[in-house]
Amino acid sequence: MTANELREKFLNFFKSKEHAILPSASLIQQNDPTVLFTTAGMHPLVPYLMGENHPGGKRVANCKKCIRTVDINEVGDATHHTFFEMLGNWSFGDPDAQNGIGAGYFKREAIEWSWEFLTSLEWLGLDKKRLAVSVFAGDEDAPCDEEAADIWLKVSAGELEGRIDYLPKNKNWWGPAGKTGPCGPDTEMFYWVGENAPPAKITPGDLAAHPKWVEIWNDVFMQYNKKDDGTFAPLEQKNVDTGMGLERTLAALNGLGDDYKTELFSNLISKVEMLSGKIYGAEQDETRAMRIIADHIKAATFIIGEDKGITPSNTDQGYVVRRLLRRAIRYGRQLGIKEKLWTKEIAKIVVHDYSQTYPESRKNVDFIIDNIKEEEEKFEKTLERGLKELEKMKPKRIASFGSKSFMSEYGLSGDVLFDLYSTYGFPIEMSL
After folding, report:
1. Prior bond to 176 cis, omega within 30?
2. I need a surface site. Which of 342, 353, 364, 388 has the fewest CB within 10 A?
3. Together in a domain, 268 and 316
4. How remote is the C-alpha of 162 from its chain's centroid?
5. Is the whole-model pTM more than 0.85?
6. Segment holding 3, helix H or strand E
7. Residue range 55-110, pLDDT digits in tens
8. Backbone dihedral angles phi then psi of residue 243, each to the nearest 5 degrees
9. Are residues 401 and 414 in the same domain?
10. What's the DSSP call for residue 187?
């Protein structure tokens, strides 16, 4: 299945369930000053989750561009991304859902439709034996979600018996998107990406820890509002907020345990292989570097390509763009890329590959390329100045500590490293 086919199937499925189909909103969050980017599909919809009337009605769905940097240090494995697309469907207090009866839309409907879309041969047709789910284990703020677990057992006709995991709030509670706002317990769907057969039954905690169980979809039951004082109050209306990761689901559908082998990354990885002379998958550190380069330049391309025209800088969203690009350049050096101004070549592929789905990047391609090129030029000058200063410090070298780092070779203290950073902008990470 292609990415376009997956997007189309998802939206068509929920259109058949009376959802209005929305376009993707901007990556730059308009209504919440506490965040720099739209980090999830629900972010632009917070006013409607809080009770405002949406012009599309009580049920909507879309495919949404997102930027999330909170787990940037995990980018480099097979399933984490800074930029990703989230397929989502929502209910804004659909009538009759408040009491869990009638033709409403809350836990039962959300879970039934998730199972149908994932497993029906008409839609995705995923192997039921490779699916498992988690539910909220409960704490002082909200009870254990046995209701969701019971619904899963019923809709799966017992298929999920032994593959329901009860996880704590840090795993099975979503939101708020900012410091306050709508939130609630969630149930997450996992797919076994191992080449061997999945276990018939899971051990408690497996879905949070086992690398072969990959989360692909998350149904959030927004029943609470987190207030400024950190307490949780019931929302006046019950909402459903779901998010299916396009990249992870596409990998699962195509029998891949690595998102970076899908069409959404393959052209980028091929270009990095050509520039570096390295082979993806041959060596762990090099593979990780290739993933980071592909992810970071893709994310920077999309951010700069937004109509607001955010550019690399030292503040707010611009700082994130600068950090992403400079981190990609550092990993390019690690791979031995010698070509000058190579990052713009990766960005051109991003624009080309997404030109039909997100035409705003194609419209702003010259602006994107000019800014990425300029940032690489600036950073290369920064690196050259910093390296020259390091060379001047060579006579001050003290005993080596058996490492190839600048700190061990030159005997640099933390104060000196900070001075290099504050004076010349030389990244501390390149000195350790």
Report:
1. yes
2. 388
3. yes
4. 29
5. yes
6. helix 3-16
7. 999 999 999 999 999 889 999 999 999 999 999 999 998 765 444 443 468 999 99
8. -145, 120
9. yes
10. E
For residues 153 and 10, membership in a common domain is answered with yes
Burial of 380 (0-12, 13-18, 19+ CB in 10 A): middle
Distance between CA atoms of 215 and 131, rounded to whole angstroms? 10
Whichever domain contains 65, its CATH number is: 3.30.930.10
Q: Which residues pair with 22 in a beta bridge?
A: 62
Angle between helix axes 3-16 and 246-253 (nearest 10 degrees) is: 110
Type of residue at 37: F
Structural domain harbouring 33: 3-253
pLDDT digits (tens, 9 = 90+) for 258-311: 999 999 999 999 999 999 999 999 999 999 999 999 999 999 999 999 877 799
Residue pair 360/350 in contact (Cβ under 8 Å)? The answer is no
Q: Are 368 and 304 in contact (CB under 8 A)?
A: yes
Q: What's the rounded Cα separation, in Å, for the pair 160 and 154? A: 9
Interatomic CA distance for residues 247 and 259, integer angstroms:
6
Q: Supply φ then ψ for residue 341, to 5 degrees.
A: 50, 45
**Helix residue spans in 316-363 (DSSP H):** 316-334, 343-353, 359-363
Task: Return d(Cα 411, Cα 378) in angstroms, integer.
Answer: 28
Question: Are residue 198 and residue 227 in the same domain, yes or no?
Answer: yes
Distance CA 278, CA 269 (A): 10
Collapsed DSSP state (helix, strand, coil) of residue 334: helix
Whether the CB-CB separation of 147 and 191 falls below 8 Å is answered with no
